[in-house]
Amino acid sequence: MRVDIISIFPDYFGPLELSLIGKARQTGRLDVAVHDLRTWTSDVHRTVDDTPYGGGPGMVMRPEPWGQALDAVGPGTLVVPSPVGKPFTQADAHELASLDRLIFACGRYEGIDQRVIDDAADRMPVREVSLGDYVLFGGEVAVIVIMEAIVRLLPGVLGNADSLTEESHAAGLLEAPVYTKPASWRSRDVPEILRSGDHGRIARWRRDQSLLRTASRRPDMMSVYPVDDLDKADRKTLTEGGFQITPPSVAK
Ligand code: ADE
């Protein structure tokens, strides 16, 4: 996979040299190029922003440098992190991980002139994505987050591929709590069942924990969980946990 990142702060992307992303780059599984947007400015001050048409606070990123930058590095699937984007999900991470060429455009200030996005969309797929309902200074940190979510899905990057099928969000539920040695720490014991060696009971316990965690912490996820995927034991767990099963949602 080839990834081009365009930003006015290329130094933000040092972390992409570390850990498993760094390793994926070293082994050639991933090719990342970070570009300074100011490369495509033509004035002495290397200006990338200007005041918004229609008035209002802050500055907007000018279209010309962005247009030239995207002409130079494109085409590819353009990902623009933005608080006005569609919520980025694990399903998006899977879709993006299946592509060969990604381009990330990091906006700053009040955002990028909309014509940049509209013009790019005539030539390449464009996705505006949001990490959540809060506002960051710019898209740089969001790109690092999205890259982590994508790169760990690339074949061969994670040592144990089972981690991907069993993790939170893979099956529409949050994962159960996890424990390691020692069995007792600060008078807190690892649940006995996990030390029992009884794989059937352990699987049931984990499933129960997943259901209860998801129903209490993420009713939004539980409300879209297919009711047909809840077996008799699942229903019992949820009902005894105080959750109502009201197709297709589980309410408290
Ligand atoms: N840029 C600024 N805020 C953002 C957010 N919440 N998600 C993605 N990109 C952003």
From TrEMBL:
This is tRNA (guanine-N(1)-)-methyltransferase. HAMAP family: TrmD. GO terms for molecular function: tRNA (guanine(37)-N1)-methyltransferase activity. Residues 1-222 form the tRNA methyltransferase TRMD/TRM10-type domain. It is found in: Cytoplasm. GO terms for biological process: methylation. It catalyses: guanosine(37) in tRNA + S-adenosyl-L-methionine = N(1)-methylguanosine(37) in tRNA + S-adenosyl-L-homocysteine + H(+). Homodimer. It comes from the Bacteria. Keywords: Cytoplasm, Methyltransferase, S-adenosyl-L-methionine, Transferase, tRNA processing. CDD domains: TrmD-like. Pfam families: tRNA_m1G_MT. It comes from Paractinoplanes pyxinae. The keyword Transferase applies. Belongs to the RNA methyltransferase TrmD family. The keyword Cell membrane does not apply.
